[in-house]
Amino acid sequence: MVLWDFDGTLAYTGRDVWITLEHAAAKCGGRLPKEFTGRDSNLGKTVKEVFHQIIPKPEEEKYEMFEEVVRVHYRTLNDYQNTYLYPGIRQLLLKTRAAGMIHFIITMKPQEALEKILKQKDWKALFDGWISPDSFPGAERTKSEMITDVMRKSGLEASQYVYIGDTWSDVDAACENGIDCIGVTYGDGDTKQLCARKPKYCAQDVSEIEKIIKEGV
Fold first, then answer.
1. CA 54 to CA 81: how far, in whole Å?
2. Which has the closest alpha carbon to 141: 186, 163, 118, 110?
3. Sign of the CA dihedral with 187 first, then 193, 195, and 201 last
4. Which pLDDT score is estimated for 137?
């Protein structure tokens, strides 16, 4: 069973996320520096960390407004026209699902935004399911907790799962659940930090992911 991160692993979403963050920065009376928005690895920073990059620096009291604008804009106003599957992903999913492989998305992206993208892009049929931090009643879940939940419900042996992601936190979440991880270096994540966590496998492109899967993770 293949468990996928979404942003930076299955799909490039960076430009659309930056559009939302830049919109929110403008609402706070400032802008995000080009040298900051020019590095997609900065998308791994928290909303609070992004807020602190705004120039001129806004009053701290504006953070709640910034956070709310980001939430509303990305979930309801963003048209995701710059979001696309990485080359080879669709073909990999179709080929392996036809052979009986299960593909499940485990992402930190809010459920509303994820499902809107999947529906708009006609990607729902490529996956067997998906889960987000806010898919649960009550408190939101961490990525590690979401992996645990999916493993509990699917009931397979740990050796039958692999998690594919582009950040060091993806590697950690997989390790915490005792499953293998394929770290991809083509995504938004910081490659040095990713490799420092020593995922069992590393893939520079989708063809390498396919090769690892075919050889039996």
1. 25
2. 110
3. negative
4. 86
Please provide the size of the chain in residues: 217
Per-residue HEC secondary structure of the chain comes to: CEEECCECCCEECHHHHHHHHHHHHHHCCCECCHHHHCCHHHHHCCHHHHHCCCECCCCHHHHHHHHHHHHHHHHHHCCCCCCEECCCHHHHHHHHHHCCCCEEEECCCCHHHHHHHHHHCCCHHHCCEEECHHHCCCCCCCHHHHHHHHHHHHCCCHHHCEEEECCHHHHHHHHHCCCEEEEECCCCCCHHHHHHCCCCEEECCHHHHHHHHHCCC
* Side chain identity at residue 32, one-letter code: L
Give residue 179's pLDDT.
Answer: 98
Which residues does residue 2 pair with via DSSP β-bridges, in sequence order? 103, 162
- pLDDT averages per 10-residue partition of the chain, 217 residues: 97 97 98 96 93 97 97 96 98 96 96 97 98 91 97 96 96 98 94 95 97 83
Decide: pTM greater than 0.85: yes
**pLDDT of amino acid 217:** 57
Are the CB atoms for 4 and 105 separated by under 8 Å? yes
* pLDDT for res 139: 85
Distance, CA of 210 to CA of 86 (rounded, Å) = 13
